[in-house]
């Protein structure tokens, strides 16, 4: 009898963690072209990722999220998908993907995919059939007739359906000879926007989600979500309405900033699609026993973003909070950082899961934005705040932006400037250069004798993983030490308290009654300071260093009391405190029911074994 009961209990506990895993997940964003090249063609690939999965597991990563790996002609680094159900050849095959998934599962890590629903590539079969009005693809895209106009000399000419501008400059409308109409592309010309006002498109995209969920992926990060819908011409006498001018200084009509995007961004219909996808993902709670994560990307203001979480009647997604990217920089004070954290926690609807993003493939690297001196601090904050933490590949070792010449430039956003002098202001290539595995040729990223797809950053011999693994004091060891604490009850469930003791001292505590507390201390100043935390009444007095940043004099395992904590210049420290008071005797109150069942049964079975 004993064994079956025990197994049942274990199964229940596992199921619970499969349902809750996402609430505190440490997610690692992989940019596949730049992570690891396994076949020597200068471009990263799936087998390269699979080869490095054990590294990620050792580091404490719960899930990897891969930027697009779907078939694409690559006019926009894989965001122009031509077949949502196959793998881009240079990354490998579907068998390689299945193996990656399997190995990842074997290591206890989950795989999250990028979902790019705003558009397909123009070379997709869907688009091709839409240009010839072949059912059911006729209305898969946003098609419209041009408008007649007369120029200053009275000559008739045809102009695009509206004044809308693409993110990458110029009209958002492109004339297509075969169909004799214009199609909408909010991004590059090769990316026609899908028509979400078509039920067939809605169903098609749900089936794409199901295709990958059936394989066993653990969810999606949804790209460019706030541009799914445009104004409905039926509400504007059959025409697409012009957007009003923004009045932005220095903007010319071809610039995206020239217009106020009231008809192309953040339309309320977008939220319903997100809630509908949530329902699709929730089908898998029953069939696979796993909660599937959905993270949405939207560069919108806070109030609009918050709506992605869902409503009283519909569940939604986790909107990426980019406040660490947008609202914190090298000069931010402890007061400002505290304000940014508190603001998100305040506006987030209660019961929802926060998230902290320190970098991605679209932004300059953290070490450049926040300064090398703040790499440990920012990594630690993301990892000790409640909710999901997302690390972009390379931020754990403090990689910096690489230099990419005009000749080597790949990013369409930069190429479209046609400006060999100022292109770099628009380029996202510097933050996409290959990962620095070691100090060997091509930073260990590729064994190619030719060029890698983007050049490796010049500092790879000093800033690389192997070097950081070899020394006790490194961004990598600090990151790993902090990540290791994420499974503690305090970081999983503890109450959050943030304090700015001064302009340069930030203190974050996570305290849970009956458990050891966690205390993060950041000194942003260029001078050492000694702090007294006796004003934090609930924080136990005895502290032990569990992670010590590269600039800190206090070493790991040092013990001290909260009344006097010496913090070096530009140092980030993580402490474990003694047991926080106020809990009930056993602390059992804080355990989830399945875990409780497991403990009780385990105790029984141990007793039985020795009786
Ligand atoms: C690079 O590695 C791949 C895979 O091991 C191998 O097939 C290829 O020959 C190597 N290329 C060079 C130039 O060493
Ligand atoms: C998946 O991994 C398991 C071990 O974790 C192994 O036994 C199995 O053969 C693998 N399957 C595939 C298709 O690679
Ligand atoms: C534009 O002018 C052409 C030729 O004069 C005409 O056939 C067409 O219907 C006009 N289109 C619109 C939208 O008025
Ligand atoms: C209008 O005519 C003038 C004089 O012939 C010419 O210089 C100008 O380029 C024309 N404008 C357009 C838009 O064709
Ligand atoms: C797709 O768009 C690109 C420009 O981005 C163009 O060069 C190419 O010819 C287009 N292909 C098709 C099939 O329309
Ligand atoms: C737009 O038109 C649709 C029907 O075509 C209608 O349901 C909707 O309420 C209208 N929206 C606005 C903002 O007028
Ligand atoms: C939302 O999700 C939660 C947790 O998965 C579930 O308990 C709740 O019933 C869902 N609400 C709706 C409206 O579907
Ligand atoms: C860039 O390419 C052009 C044309 O191939 C060449 O003339 C120029 O020297 C190159 N510049 C650099 C910096 O490599
Ligand atoms: C700190 O203590 C842990 C466990 O007691 C031990 O494994 C580790 O080696 C110690 N680290 C240092 C830097 O002393
Ligand atoms: C927010 C944003 O622009 N996200 C993506 C939407 O699609 C474009 C073009 O495909 C990508 O480059 C963006 O990263
Ligand atoms: C990029 C982005 O969406 N940033 C928003 C994140 O949240 C802050 C508020 O905390 C907004 O101000 C940013 O615009």
Automatic annotation (TrEMBL):
**InterPro entries linked:** GH, GH13_cat_dom, O16G_dom_2
Quote the catalytic activity from the record: Hydrolysis of terminal, non-reducing (1->4)-linked alpha-D-glucose residues with release of alpha-D-glucose
Q: Does the keyword Membrane apply?
A: yes
The record's GO molecular-function terms, alphabetically, read: alpha-1,4-glucosidase activity
Where does the signal sequence lie?
1-16
Q: What class of enzyme is it?
A: hydrolase
Organism source for this protein? Answer: Bicyclus anynana (Squinting bush brown butterfly)
Q: Which UniProt keywords apply?
A: Membrane, Signal, Transmembrane, Transmembrane helix
**Superkingdom of the source species:** Eukaryota
TM ranges: 590-610
EC numbers: 3.2.1.20
Name this polypeptide is given: alpha-glucosidase
Decide whether keyword Signal is in the record: yes
